[in-house]
Design brief:
By secondary structure, the chain is an alpha+beta fold. It contains 4 helices and 7 strands. The chain is 25% helix and 35% strand. Strands 1-2-3-4-5-7-6 form a 7-stranded mixed beta sheet. Strand 3 and strand 4 form a beta hairpin. The chain binds coenzyme A.
Length: 161
């Protein structure tokens, strides 16, 4: 993650935030957030490939006043399980509750599809995400050795039932 700052991105208060399904014209903003958030980011084409897949839930948090994309979540569903495959908030909009709202939204979508459990992987060193998941009722369930690249690192698996 870089220390880049975009001055105009600071969110308006959370009552002006809306969570909605992503559209194709959101992808450039989503990919820009992704690039700043991760050392091994998904490409814009990876996000575009999600559209039309009935097993995918791809939602964004939008500033309802400026229409800026402030964050996004991607979940996918397999039989009775859901996986949070991606989640990020613009680096200038963090600690305003947006990540928690996106996560709650994805968990609600999973429940609607009658998923029995929701799981996700996180880099062991990612203290912010681990704190977020713990605060939303996810429990540590396991470890996948050397799961990530750039840099190679173990993943911790969190589950919410
Ligand atoms: C992880 C991430 C999505 C959190 O988004 P966010 O909008 O800043 O999180 P929220 O404001 O909703 O935080 C909710 C709670 O999570 C915890 N938390 C979030 N960021 C934290 C941090 N940097 N340090 C400690 N706790 C943190 C806190 O308990 C926080 O509640 P509080 O602000 O009342 O203390 C964001 O930091 C991010 O995009 N990081 C880069 C991408 C990433 O790591 N994604 C997850 C991959 S598994």
């Amino acid at each position: 993650m870089t220390e880049a700052r975009v001055g105009s991105m600071r969110p308006t208060p959370s009552r002006h935030l809306s969570i909605r399904l992503a559209r194709r014209d959101d992808v450039d903003e989503v990919a820009a957030i992704e690039k700043r958030a991760f050392s091994d980011p998904w490409s814009a084409n990876s996000f575009r490939a999600l559209f039309g897949n009935p097993l995918v839930h791809f939602a964004i948090a939008e500033d309802a006043v400026t229409a800026n994309v402030l964050g996004y979540v991607v979940a996918w569903f397999v039989v009775d399980e859901a996986e949070i495959a991606n989640l990020a908030v613009s680096d200038d909009a963090r600690r305003a509750g947006i990540g928690a709202r996106l996560l709650d939204h994805a968990v609600a979508a999973a429940k609607q599809r009658t998923a029995r459990m929701v799981y996700l992987e996180v880099r062991e060193s990612n203290a912010a995400a681990r704190a977020l998941y713990a605060s939303r009722g996810f429990a540590l369930a396991g470890r996948r050795a050397k799961y990530y690249r750039k840099p190679v690192e173990d993943a911790l698996v969190f589950v919410r039932i």
